[in-house]
Amino acid sequence: MVFDMAENMKPIRVGLACYGMSGSIFHAPLLSVDKRFVISKIVERNTEKSRQKYPYVSVVKSFDEILKDESIDLVVVNTPNQFHFEQGKAVLMAGKHLILEKPVTNFSWEAQDLIELANAKNLIFSVFHNRRYDGDFKTIKSIVQNKLLGDLVVYEAHYDRFRNYIAANTWKEEEGVGSGIVYNLGSHLIDQALHLFGMPQSITAKIGKQRRGSQVDDFYEIYLDYQARANGLQVLLKSSYLVREATPKYLLHGSFGSFVKYGIDPQEEALNNGILPNTPHWGREDKQFWGKLNTEIAGLHYEGHIETLAGSYPDFYTNIYEAIREGKPLAIKAEDAYNTIKIIELAYQSNQEDKTIYL
């Protein structure tokens, strides 16, 4: 890719495909505080809510209006999962860089098609797996990489909610491919695990419905087996909509010790409350939620809480800018998201066939 210095000084003009939950809480606020980006157009078919916060943005009624705008460099496709493949392909065919909301697509073959198209057109294609920038996960990544627990034998991650009712007027509660808890919450935990450990040797999964009247899966347990790693690492990923009492979000055990972490990264709640990432102490977690480390370091026993690293969702768009304008590698590659969907497909196969699937 050839880079023009004058062109590189221009802000990246962005089209946002939807102003729903992810658009209003994540993408628009993150882009609005980064002067290297300009939100040019937002699709709102029935309302113009985005004007209240972003009066300078052009609100359009169709996705085609974004595609036909030659001034737009980058399109964020954050519509429901069923539209990701079709709209993502249209973006790339229009010669624009692409960000897809997680999960990348409903099927792995669709993700592969988009990857090949982006490569053929020399375009940037990434996926918004923002939970890699959660403070707790960043802390765990440092613990694992620095082998503070020795040889890791157990990695357990939970993403639970208490929602003992069926939410109305949301596609996420409607039966169909791409809906349900595995695609919604599971894609975060799977992406994190694959980022840390790569693809497993086998997968065993239980997926089902726990709430009365649920049309979609609202519970899963996914076991990823890494027999080839030292001490045979076992990874358990688990979510349910019927967890009222908080359990540890992460539990790690190794040959030297353990790490236990409660609490949820504060960035989403802050954004939901209108607090922007350019405020002081962004992403800092309250001390009461710091994780407990009990281990042996250089022959010395340590037991106590360690400060959670600050969460950093803005880093996602910093990397996107650097990839487009400076040719730097993507932090979250579309190939990573492809692997996440592949694991989801294998998890459903394991559940349906009631057996372990070997990769």
UniProtKB/TrEMBL annotation:
Pfam families, sorted: GFO_IDH_MocA (PF01408), GFO_IDH_MocA_C (PF02894)
Molecular function GO labels: nucleotide binding; oxidoreductase activity
Keywords: Oxidoreductase
Oxidoreductase found in the keyword field: yes
SUPFAM superfamilies registered for this protein in UniProt: NAD(P)-binding Rossmann-fold domains
InterPro entries (UniProt xref): Gfo/Idh/MocA-like_OxRdtase_C (IPR004104), Gfo/Idh/MocA-like_OxRdtase_N (IPR000683), Gfo/Idh/MocA_oxidoreduct (IPR051317), NAD(P)-bd_dom_sf (IPR036291)
Signal sequence interval, chain numbering: none
Gfo/Idh/MocA-like oxidoreductase C-terminal domain: residues covered: 141-357
Residue ranges of domain Gfo/Idh/MocA-like oxidoreductase N-terminal in the record: 12-129
Keyword Oxidoreductase tagged: yes
Family of the protein in this entry: Belongs to the Gfo/Idh/MocA family.
Matching PANTHER family: CONSERVED EXPRESSED OXIDOREDUCTASE (EUROFUNG), CONSERVED EXPRESSED OXIDOREDUCTASE (EUROFUNG)-RELATED
Name of the protein in question: Predicted dehydrogenase
Native source organism of the sequence: Thermoflexibacter ruber
Classification of source organism: Bacteria, Pseudomonadati, Bacteroidota, Cytophagia, Cytophagales
